């Protein structure tokens, strides 16, 4: 088992040719993010700026 102390959220992204989808889970397994994502670099960068990235 990996050491996950100090981890707040695990993030993942399913990347596809026509669509992307983002996921976020707490270490306890609670879903905190599950949404379609933009499918272009400029749109992803703009989205990231809105969420504090």
Q: How would you portray this structure in words?
A:
By secondary structure, the chain is an alpha+beta fold. The chain has one domain. Helix content is 19%, strand content 36%. The chain is built from one helix and three strands, in the order βββα. Strands 1-2-3 form a three-stranded antiparallel β-sheet, with no helix packed on it. It is elongated.
**Structural class from helices and strands?**
alpha+beta
What overall geometry do the principal axes of the alpha carbons give? elongated
Write down how many β-strands occur, each being a DSSP E stretch of 2 or more residues: 3
Question: Uncertain regions: pLDDT < 50 for 5+ in a row?
Answer: none
- Total count of helical runs of at least 4 residues: 1
Portion of residues in helices?
10-25%
- Sheet-strand content, in percent, reads 35-45%
Strand order of the largest sheet: 1-2-3
Secondary-structure element pattern, one letter each = EEEH
Radius of gyration: 13 Å
Mean pLDDT: 88
Largest sheet: 3 strands, antiparallel
| N- and C-termini, Cα separation | 29 Å
Total domain modules: 1
Q: Summary?
A:
19% of the residues lie in helices and 36% in strands. It is an alpha+beta fold and 53 residues long.
């Amino acid at each position: 088992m990996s050491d996950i102390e100090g981890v707040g959220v695990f993030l993942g992204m399913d990347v596809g040719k026509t669509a992307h989808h983002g996921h976020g889970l707490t270490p306890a397994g609670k879903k905190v993010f599950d949404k379609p994502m933009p499918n272009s670099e400029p749109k992803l960068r703009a989205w990231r700026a809105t969420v504090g990235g």
